[in-house]
Amino acid sequence: MSDTWLVVGLGNPGPKYAGNRHNVGRMVIDTLARRAGSTLTTHKARAHVADVRLGVLPGGAPGPRAVLAVPGTFMNLSGGPVSALLRFYDIPAERLLVVHDELDLPPSTLRLKRGGGEGGHNGLRSISSSIGTRDYVRLRVGIGRPPGRMDAADFVLRDFATAERPELLVTLEEAADAVEDVLTLGLEKAQLRLHTA
Description:
One of its GO terms (molecular function) is peptidyl-tRNA hydrolase activity. The chain is of the alpha/beta class. The chain has one domain: 3-Layer(aba) Sandwich (Rossmann fold). The chain is 35% helix and 20% strand. Helix 1 (24-35) packs across helix 5 (165-185) and helix 2 (79-89) packs across helix 3 (122-131). The longest helix has 21 residues, at 165-185. It is globular.
């Protein structure tokens, strides 16, 4: 068994959905891949992946190996590709980190946790069901609640507004920092750094 991590960003495939709030997890993966000087390529597990090293360990050595991935399926079918990637790379579920959008957090708020419920998130529900456990790390990226009486399903499939873009770019970098912290410092120290910042 390796000390490799699988870092998955949730969203829907294709250009139609690329800028959606629901795709913020995929945007974080793109940010991490860019930092690592890599690009995602097609994998037989119905996903796009990049095999990289993330962050810098205390002492200056390169951070651990990470497989960055976005499922090639729609959000509610994310579990199949994630399960296949864990098997392919022989990575245990406790070294799975899933980045996803979160309606119950204010925009740009980030929270790290291990395990817990799915909170009505179909991507998480699919992953937990496919891998047989909820005991994996999640990085929740707040997108806020829909305005007025707008349906949540419509809201998450809307693009971020132009006025939101500058803050979004900062959030993506902060989320990438949080992922690197989990891999290089461990979850508890990463939580402490993120939640008390």
